[in-house]
């Protein structure tokens, strides 16, 4: 029998949130973006739409503003989604970062998230 590996879900990322109506925010995910639960998100300054955080860009997505709550596939055009935006605790291992992020860049981004009230904790 083939083994099945379950992909991450919100329960693998989110430890605690203030209230779903407070900690989460509806967003527009920019066309061409694919997000998974726990993926760190940035906001494109020119459009106000959201995409995967990318520390190497200079379009606004280099600043983390939250984390994805679900799988979102916007390859066919902009779509609506939900992110964890404030006052929540997330697992360090549940967050999804760019493949080329350095430890220092991750620390800086984590501090930025903490400024929004999104605190990271190691899994217990």
Summarize the structure in words.
The protein is globular and about 45 Å long. The model has no long low-confidence stretch (mean pLDDT 95). 32% of the residues are buried. By secondary structure, it is α+β, with helices and mostly antiparallel strands. It contains two helices and ten strands; from the N terminus they run E-H-E-E-E-E-E-E-E-E-H-E.
Taking all Cα atoms into account, the compactness measure Rg is: 14 Å
Determine the structural class based on helices, strands and strand pairing: alpha+beta
Approximately how much beta-strand content do the residues carry? 25-35%
Through-space gap between termini: 31 Å
* Poorly predicted parts: none
Mean pLDDT: 95
Give the name of the CATH superfamily.
Answer: Head decoration protein D
Domains (count): 1
């Amino acid at each position: 029998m083939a083994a099945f590996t379950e992909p991450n879900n919100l329960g693998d990322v989110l430890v605690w949130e203030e209230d779903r109506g407070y900690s989460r925010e509806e967003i527009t995910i920019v066309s061409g973006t694919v997000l998974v639960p726990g993926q760190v998100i940035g906001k494109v300054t020119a459009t106000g739409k959201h995409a995967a955080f990318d520390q190497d860009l200079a379009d606004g997505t280099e600043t983390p503003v939250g984390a994805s709550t679900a799988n979102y596939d916007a390859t066919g055009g902009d779509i609506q989604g939900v992110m964890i935006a404030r006052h929540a605790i997330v697992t360090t291992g549940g967050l999804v970062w760019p493949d080329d992020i350095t430890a220092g860049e991750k620390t800086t981004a984590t501090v930025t998230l903490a400024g929004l009230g999104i605190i990271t904790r190691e899994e217990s």
